[in-house]
Amino acid sequence: MSNKIKHSKGDRVILGINNILLGIIVLLILGPLLYVFLSSFLEPNALIRKGLSLARSDWSFEGYTRILTDGTIMRGFLNSILYSAGFTIITVTVTILAGYTLSVDGLVGRKVFMFFFLFTMFFGGGLIPTYFVVRDLGMLNTIWSIIIPGAVNVWFIILARTYFKGIPNELKEAARIDGASDFRIFISVVLPLCKPIIFVLALYAFIGQWNAYFDAMIYLDDRNLYPLQLVLRSILIQNEVQPGMIADIQARNEIMRVSEMIRYSSIVIASLPLLIMYPFFQKYFEKGVMVGSLK
C-alpha cells in the first residue's frame, strides 16, 4: 500500500515555487563559494584572461604552497584555533552552569538575576570603558583579552535556560529521592540529556570567535598573536603580503599575481574548520535551534 501523499493542484504549484526559490538561494550561496574554491587553484593571469578554466595548464598549487610555507598565516591559523577552542570551552561551561541554575524553580532571587542579565543585552559600557577594564586587568596583548571579555553571552544563557526547563522535573525528583545531591543530579541526570544544546552552543561560540577580528585589532599589538582573520584582513583589504612570501619576486606585476593567488587560497583555508565541523554537529544543531520554539 503506497504511503505517497497526494497533493492538490494548488499544493503542487506552491511546492514547485518553493523548490525554485530554494534552488535559486542555493545557487546564490554555492556560486561564490565554488568560484573562490576553483579560483584558488588557478593562475591569476589565466583567471583574468579566461575566467574559470578547466585547462590543466592554467591550474596551480602555488597559492597553497606559499601559505603552508609562510609562518605568518600558519601562525594566525594556529592562534585562531587556540582562541576559538579556549573561548568555546569557557563560554559553554559558563553558559551551561548559569542556564541550569536559572532554570531551577526554587532559586532565591531568580528574577533579579535574570533582570541583570537581560539589562546587559540592551545597555553596555561601550568600547572605551571595556578597553580600560581589559587594560587595568593586565590582559592587553594576551590570549585572555580575546577569550574573556565576550565569554558570557546572555542570549546563550537564555537558550540554555529554556532547554533545561524542558527537562522533566520527575527525573530530578527521582534522583533526589535516591539521595543524590543537586550537583550529582546535574552531572548524572541533566548533563547526559543536554548534548544537543551543548553542541549548538559550541558551534555558535566557535564560529563567532573564528570569524572575529575586531577585538584582536583593538587589544593585540604583537603580530605573532594575531588570529587568522586579522592576517587575512591585511591581505584582503589592505593588500599587504608579508615580504617573506614574495622574497623571490621583484616585478610589481608578479607581486600582484601572488597577492591575488594568496587571497583565494587563504579564504579556502580559513573556511575549512567550519566546513569540517558542521557535518558532525548537524544532527544536534537541528535539535538545538528548535529550543523554546514551542514555549
Q: Could you explain how this protein is built, in words?
A:
This protein is mostly helical. The protein has a single domain (65-288), classed as MetI-like (MetI-like fold, Orthogonal Bundle), CATH 1.10.3720.10. It contains 14 helices and no strands. It has helices spanning 9-39, 44-50, 62-69, 71-103, 110-122, 127-136, 144-147, 154-165, 169-177, 182-190, 195-210, 214-219, 228-236, 252-288. Helix 3 (62-69) crosses helix 14 (252-288), helix 4 runs antiparallel to helix 11 and helix 9 packs across helix 10 (182-190). One of its GO terms (biological process) is transmembrane transport. Belongs to the binding-protein-dependent transport system permease family.
Q: Main beta sheet: strand number and arrangement?
A: none
- Please name the CATH topology: MetI-like fold
- How many domains make up the 3D coordinates? 1
Q: State the low-pLDDT regions, or none.
A: 246-251
Return the average pLDDT rounded to an integer: 80
Number of strands: 0
Cα separation of the termini: 38 Å
* SS summary, helix count: 14
At CATH level 2, the architecture is: Orthogonal Bundle
Order of helices and strands: HHHHHHHHHHHHHH
| Share in β-strands | under 5%
Q: Whole-number radius of gyration?
A: 25 Å
CATH superfamily: MetI-like
Range of helix content: 55-70%
* Morphology call: globular
CATH class wording? Mainly Alpha
The class by helix and strand makeup works out as mainly alpha
Keywords: Cell membrane, Membrane, Transmembrane, Transmembrane helix, Transport
Protein name: Putative aldouronate transport system permease protein
Pfam families: BPD_transp_1
Transmembrane segments: 20-42, 81-100, 112-134, 146-164, 185-207, 261-281
